């Protein structure tokens, strides 16, 4: 089943946005796709550490 998306609004440091957009462009992804990947990986790593 396809996962639904929800729009959110966040405030990020300008330098972080510039770096993330550059990374996304280099990988051929959208800014949103890259953020989703990064956040999912972060949450997965947190779950692995917890017992």
Explain what this protein looks like in three dimensions.
- The protein is mostly helical.
- Helices cover 65% and strands 0% of the residues.
- It is built from two helices and no strands.
- The protein has helices spanning 14-27, 31-49.
- Helix 1 crosses helix 2.
- The chain is globular, with a radius of gyration of 13 Å.
- The model has no long low-confidence stretch (mean pLDDT 92).
Key attributes of the depicted protein:
single chain; 51 residues; mainly alpha; 2 helices
In short:
With 51 residues, this protein is an all-alpha fold. The chain has 2 helices and no strands.
What does the secondary structure layout of this molecule look like, with pairings?
Elements: H1 14-27, H2 31-49
Helix pairs in contact: 1-2
Binned, the helix content reads 55-70%
Largest sheet: none
Strand content: under 5%
Anisotropy-based shape: globular
pLDDT averaged over residues? 92
Strands, count = 0
Our count of helices gives 2
Structural class: mainly alpha
Rounded to the nearest angstrom, the radius of gyration is 13 Å
How far apart the termini lie comes to: 29 Å
SSE string, helix = H, strand = E? Answer: HH
The poorly predicted ranges are none
